[in-house]
Every structure is written in C-alpha cells, then in structure tokens.
Design goal:
Its main location: other. It is found in: Cell envelope. One of its GO terms (biological process) is iron coordination entity transport. Keywords: Coiled coil, Signal, Transport. There is one protein chain. β8 and β9 form a beta hairpin. The radius of gyration is 21 Å and the shape is globular. The N terminus is likely disordered. It has two domains: about 160 residues, 3-Layer(aba) Sandwich (Rossmann fold), CATH 3.40.50.1980; about 120 residues, Nitrogenase molybdenum iron protein domain (Rossmann fold). It is α/β, with parallel strands linked by helices. The strands form four sheets. A five-stranded mixed sheet has the order 10-9-8-11-12. The protein contains 13 helices and twelve strands.
Length: about 350
C-alpha cells in the first residue's frame, strides 16, 4: 500500500546521510511544471540573422540603462535590497538556474556524500558549502547577494543571521514548484531577464522536437519513473521533477499507479511497496538506481521480474548522479536526452 507525504521540515535531523540526501532531494528537486503552465516565455523573439548594423555615423549605438539597486519583496514578506550588479551570489541548490543565466556562484550545495553531479563540468572549480548553510562558511564566501530556495531553510532566526551577512531573498516553496517561474524571477533579480527568457524558449523548443520524435516511436505506451534507494521504491508525481518533463513536456502517458495516488497526499517522490509495484502496467520504466552497491538484490525478486515492463526488457536504468532527481533548464534538458537515447533508437 502507499505511504505518502514525506515532510520537508525534519530532514536536518536524520542520522543517516543516505536518508538525509533522500529527504533533501524529495523536498527540493521537484521544482517543475509543464510548458503549458508558463505563458509567453517560449515566444521570446530571437535575433534576426539578416539584421545589419548601421555605420556609427548614421545611427549611434544603443545604450543600455545602467543597473540600479532595487528593493523587492520575497516569499516571506521581507523587503530585500538587491545590489545593482551582484558579483558574489550564493544560491544553494539553485545552481542550475545560476549556470543557465551565465552566473558562477561563490559556492555550491553539498551533502557529505556529494554534490549535484550533473553540473560537475560547469561547477568544477566552485567550492562547496554544506546544505544547512553554516554561518561561518557563508561569511567566509563573502556573498553580496543570497538567494534561498524555501521558507523552511531559514527558520529559527537563520534568515536574520544570513541577512546580516548579505541581502537574502527567499524564493519560496510555491514558486519553486515551477522551474520556469523560478528562472524568470532569479533572472529578474540578477538583471538576466533576457537570458532567462531565451533559455526557456530554447528548452521548450527542444522538448517539442523530442516529443514529436518519441511519439512516432512508442505511440500510446505508458511510462513509469521509479527511484530505488535504501531498498525502497518511490514513484514520481507527474507535475514535479522528472515527472513534469516526461509527462508534461514530452507528453508521455501516465501509468496506472501514478493516477491512483491520492491528490491530498502527493509528494514529489511517493513511497510505494514492491507488492504495490506488482500492479504496475507501464510499458516502460525509467529507473533511477541509487542502490548500485547495496540493495539491488530487490531487482532480482520474483515480484519485480513479474512486472510487464521488466519482463519485456523495457527498463531504462540511470545512476543517481544523473539529472532525474533534480530540476531546472539544464537538469530537464539532460533528462530529455536520456529519454531520447532510451526510446528513439
């Protein structure tokens, strides 16, 4: 039977780092929404290849108004003064957005057993900072602007302490559910709105092209996305994380077990028993396997092997360092690549 709704608030107290990482990702990685929920961004006009530049004597070069300091209100109601041109930005677990906008953070999110590996190339020279933002570490990086993803990350007076180090803007859980809105907001804060719009337009075009290719290959086949960690399975919600990419952006058909999750208790990744998985009728399974070194014996069980997609050899497996557990233009683009490589031969 299902056991739903993993809570965000307790993840800092878990003794096991494996469960710590699990809870962080469950609560944070699902910042997603389908292309249909974002209006206008995908229609941003591209520069014309036929445009010509007039000689300086005929038309003076256009000048861009200098950036100015601005005061904005964040998700928690704080009035935040944003520097005119932030140079040392800290945005733990929001690095996908910064990299997309061409901004290198002063530090990158980490837990004891790793970082966001799918950004390894882009962040290879960026030092790490613990997920819980130790104040001494934050001060050591001397940020001039700080973006925090969720309200729960700055409880018990932490916001005030962080805000004394640098102006701190809380994006908020509600906005974080939609990576497009999050990217546009971060772009606005960092004077990168044009870059944000262009990135969304490029992603939406890539998703549309991939959707057309995939639909000609698998037709009406249904697809499930599972995560195996610590010998436990989780099934993704269709509106969050890689679920929003596969079901929303690529338009693939939902399997029976996802549609049966009670709406009142949905989480980004929903715990599901092996016995319940025996009822899964999906034609394809995308499996994120975090149990490569331990626990994979569950994949040899008769129940698992009896699932139709498993019997048909339609399990597409990825390690946990892939993009499927995360969200953002870069993560989602890499997930599309994985789906194409798996389904379009």
């Amino acid at each position: 039977m299902y056991s739903f709704k993993l809570k965000r608030a307790g993840h800092r107290k878990l003794a096991s780092i494996g469960l710590l990482t699990l809870t962080l990702i469950l609560s944070a990685c699902g910042n997603n929404n389908s292309a249909n929920s974002t209006g206008g961004a995908a229609n941003a006009p591209a520069a014309s290849a036929d445009a010509t530049t007039a000689p300086a004597s005929e038309a003076p070069a256009a000048t861009t108004a200098p950036a100015v300091e601005k005061t904005v209100t964040d998700a928690m109601g704080h009035k935040v003064t944003v520097p005119a041109n932030p140079q040392r930005v800290l945005a733990s677990y929001l690095e996908d957005y910064l990299v997309t906008l061409g901004v290198t953070p002063v530090a990158q999110w980490s837990v004891t057993n790793g970082v966001q590996d799918y950004l390894a190339d882009e962040l290879k020279d960026v030092p790490t900072i613990s997920f819980d933002l130790p104040l001494e570490a934050v001060m050591g990086f001397a940020p001039d602007f700080h973006i925090v993803q969720s309200e729960s990350s700055v409880q018990n007076g932490l916001y005030d302490q962080l805000n004394k180090i640098a102006p701190t803007y809380v994006l908020g859980d509600e906005m974080s559910k939609d990576w497009r809105k999050s990217l546009l907001k971060i772009g606005e804060l960092l004077n990168k709105s044009a870059e944000a719009e262009q990135a969304i337009a490029a992603y939406d075009q890539k998703a549309a092209d991939a959707k057309a290719k995939i639909s000609t290959v698998i037709g009406d086949d249904s697809v499930a996305i599972l995560w195996l960690i610590k010998k436990n399975f989780y099934i993704v919600d269709e509106t969050r994380s890689s679920g929003a990419v596969v079901y929303g952006d690529l338009g693939l058909k939902l399997p029976n077990l996802v549609t049966e999750i009670p709406s009142a208790s949905r989480a980004t990744w929903n715990p599901i028993s092996l016995e319940k998985l025996a009822e899964l009728t999906a034609d394809h399974i995308f499996l994120v396997n975090s149990d490569k070194t331990e626990g994979s014996e569950i994949l040899n069980s008769p129940i698992w092997k009896g699932i139709p997609a498993v019997k048909a050899g339609n399990v597409h497996e990825f390690a946990s360092n892939h993009s499927w557990l995360y969200s953002g233009a870069i993560a989602n683009s890499k997930t599309i690549d994985d789906v194409l490589n798996s389904l379009v031969k």
